[in-house]
Amino acid sequence: MGSVSKKVCVKTSEMAAFDRYFSMVDIDEQGLRDRYVRALDRLQGTKYFDQSDALDNEWAARDDKDTALEMSLDQHFRGDWVHHLYPTDPGVYGAQGGRFWPQVPSDDILNRLQAGTVSAIHKALGDSELASLGLSADDRDDLWAAERENSIPIDDGIRAVALSWTRAAPAGENLFEVDALRGPSVVELIIVTPSPSVTPPS
Fold first, then answer.
1. What residues pair up with 194 in beta bridges, in sequence order?
2. What is the distance of C-alpha 131 from the center of its chain?
3. How far is CA 200 from the centre of its chain?
4. How does pLDDT run across 89-143, given as a tens digit for each residue?
């Protein structure tokens, strides 16, 4: 049996903070529901990527919180993932990529991350919660196709979300996918990319 690269699937400190924030580690089910509703509201805005409630909350006790947030949002996400000048002129820089995947337009990355995260939160809330939030029956029917195919219950409580990033293609390929699936105990939110064109920060 061949060896498996240790860098195929990645869990960064930002992803670990996301996982803790969207879990019931420090809150009850109602508290998690409230976090999801706030996140859905934030994701409706065009500048949803300018801050992170998950990082603010999970890194609150760090002595270097401000520096860590700046490094994560202003240098890693806006820089490695999307073009570093994207916030100044999305019309120009939306068609360009960041350092990791210069061949993948920043607009594509942001749109897919936004849609995938909304889908994951919807799946984490469950069908009756989505109905109470006003999501149409048609939209809910489309949302649950994979769960129905895999006989996964869609309305048996709120779930945590676990975030993973998997490299599924060589550097230089034009691949960036984000998808979510509700499982028996957690919603998996997975980002699938090529290997970065530069070495990721550790």
1. 169
2. 23
3. 18
4. 999 999 999 999 999 999 999 999 999 999 999 999 999 999 999 999 999 999 9
Read off the pTM: 0.90
Interval 151-182: pLDDT, tens: 999 998 999 999 999 999 999 999 999 999 99
Question: What is d(CA 123, CA 140) in angstroms, rounded to the nearest whole number?
Answer: 9
Q: Kindly tell me the burial class for residue 89, based on how many C-beta atoms sit within 10 Å of its own C-beta (0-12, 13-18, 19 or more).
A: exposed
Beta bridge partners of 160: 186
Provide the pairing of β-strand 186-194 with 160-169.
Answer: parallel
Which residue in 72, 112, 79, 113 sits closest to 97, CA to CA? 79
User: For residue 176, what are its two tokens?
Assistant: 């960036």
Dist. CA 18–CA 24, nearest whole Å? 12
Residue given tokens 């809330």 in the structure block: 125
H helices of the chain, in order, are 13-21, 29-43, 53-58, 65-69, 90-93, 106-125, 127-132, 137-143, 145-149
Question: Cα–Cα distance between 77 and 70 in angstroms, integer?
Answer: 10
The two structure tokens encoding residue 130: 């989505």
- What is the per-residue burial (b if ≥16 Cβ within 10 Å, else e) of 126-157? bbebbeeeeeeeeeeeebbeebeeeeeeeeee
For residue 66, give every residue at least 6 positions away whose Cβ sits within 8 Å of its Cβ, in sequence order, or none: none
